[in-house]
């Protein structure tokens, strides 16, 4: 499903494709002197713009999936750390070591900041400082939780009395769980970089001054108005197609 923050870009790319089709339908009578308005150039630009928009939407879905996988993995830490602490208390460990483990357990009970799957985790264009701070804080939270969990594992490794028969509580399995958490967090950052790069390319193709889709579309309309007049079907069709640049700060 197309994210709300991406719909404006999709509409722009679609409108540009329709505008190119109007120009193409004019045949030999369409003969602008500006090379940017030549049909071959317009066709290539339309294809590139559409591909860039589709690429962003695909990568946005990949990013959401990575965020959700990380969230589900870290959400299990609170319950898992409670089980670990209970077993540690039962195995005969000293009160001092129990308190050490309990300190990290408490840190893992805090709620992990979740990015709802229905809201864009990254603004489509020129993220505002406040939004950037939320993302940075969320990432820091996951990094801290991962470190707290690793500290718990380190305490367990140094306690010879800790030898659970329950497979999911063994040091080996807990270490593997920690590795998976690190991998899920790294995957989010990888998808974030890919998404940012794809958005930068899309914005360049659609909104670059003079040569981007938005400005070329305006030039096309000016040519149609001059060459065929305001009463022509081509002009009337073209003027109904809205292609606008997003607001920037």
Provide a short characterization of the protein structure:
With 249 residues, the protein is mainly α.
Write up what this structure looks like.
Residues 106-116 have a biased composition (Basic residues). Residues 106-128 are annotated as: Disordered. The chain is mostly helical and 249 residues long. It is 69% helix and 0% strand. The chain has 8 helices and no strands. The protein has helices spanning 7-25, 39-75, 77-90, 95-107, 129-157, 171-207, 213-228, 233-239. α4 (95-107) packs antiparallel against α5. The longest helix is centred in the first third of the chain and has 37 residues, at 39-75. Residues 111-137 have low confidence and may be disordered.
Strand segment count: 0
What letter string, H or E per element, gives the SSE order?
Answer: HHHHHHHH
Strand content: under 5%
Distance between the termini: 28 Å
Rg computed from alpha carbons, rounded to a whole number of angstroms: 28 Å
Provide mean pLDDT, rounded: 88
SSE class: mainly alpha
Unreliable stretches (pLDDT < 50, length at least 5) are: 111-137
């Amino acid at each position: 499903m197309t994210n709300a923050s991406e719909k404006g870009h999709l509409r722009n790319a679609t409108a540009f494709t329709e505008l190119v089709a109007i120009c193409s339908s004019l045949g030999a009578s369409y003969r602008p002197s500006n090379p940017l308005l030549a049909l071959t150039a317009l066709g290539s630009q339309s294809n590139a713009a559409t591909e860039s928009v589709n690429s962003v939407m695909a990568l946005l879905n990949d990013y959401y999936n990575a965020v959700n996988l990380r969230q589900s993995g870290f959400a299990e830490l609170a319950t898992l750390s409670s089980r670990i602490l209970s077993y540690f208390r039962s195995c005969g460990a000293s009160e001092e070591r129990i308190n050490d483990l309990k300190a990290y357990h408490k840190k893992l009970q805090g709620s992990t900041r979740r990015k709802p799957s229905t809201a864009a985790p990254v603004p489509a264009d020129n993220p505002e400082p406040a939004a950037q701070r939320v993302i940075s804080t969320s990432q820091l939270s996951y990094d801290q939780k991962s470190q707290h969990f690793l500290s718990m594992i380190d305490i367990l490794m140094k306690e010879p009395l800790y030898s659970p028969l329950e497979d999911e509580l063994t040091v080996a399995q807990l270490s593997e769980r920690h590795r998976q958490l690190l991998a899920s967090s790294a995957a989010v950052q990888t998808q974030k970089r890919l998404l940012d790069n794809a958005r930068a390319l899309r914005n360049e193709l659609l909104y670059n001054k003079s040569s981007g889709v938005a400005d070329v579309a305006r030039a096309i309309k000016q040519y149609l108005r001059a060459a065929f007049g305001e009463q022509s079907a081509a002009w009337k069709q073209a003027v109904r197609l809205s292609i606008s640049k997003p607001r920037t700060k």
